[in-house]
Amino acid sequence: MEEIRKYFEKSVSMSDRDWELFSEKLIRQKFSKKQFLIKSRETENYLSFIEKGTVRFFLDRDDDFTFSFSFAGEFVSAYDSFLTRKPCIYNIQALEETILWRISHEDLRTIYAETEIGNTIGRLASEGLYLENLKREISLLTETAEQRYLNLFSEQPHIVKQIPLKYIASYIGITPQALSRIRRQIF
């Protein structure tokens, strides 16, 4: 739980009182490998911080199109659904045993109203989610598949051991066969 406070305090100091009010609303939840955090057509009720683990975001298609990952030390949510209170169109699934610290939509609204730092907490979490998505979009528009793979590998070196290559291939926008060729050329 202290990792969340450290995350926020990179940008803003937080009083012990505000931290206490916020942290008492957090729920620690464990997900087993392949367990869903949320399925398509469900409404997201939580903003979560990953203490341990990796999750993937994917669309229900024949090829289960993976379009994002989130890792330990990051926020995760079907954030569009969380904000609009409408069902999401994608799934979020644990790729390994994953531990989350979660705050419900209702409890986050309470934090906004009752603490001095509440709105800043919400803003920082949403900015983190936004920046990760923007980084991915820019990568798809400006980098080759090989560059995207190397960037992912350098930023998250453990990923190759934990995530099936078909998910990585989908994430960087290529077929598993093309990823195999890239990996042979690199290694």
From TrEMBL:
Domain of life: Bacteria
CDD domains xref list: CAP_ED
InterPro entries per the UniProt record, alphabetical: cNMP-bd_dom, cNMP-bd_dom_sf, RmlC-like_jellyroll
Domain Cyclic nucleotide-binding: 29-113
Protein name: Crp/Fnr family transcriptional regulator
Organism of derivation: Chryseobacterium paridis
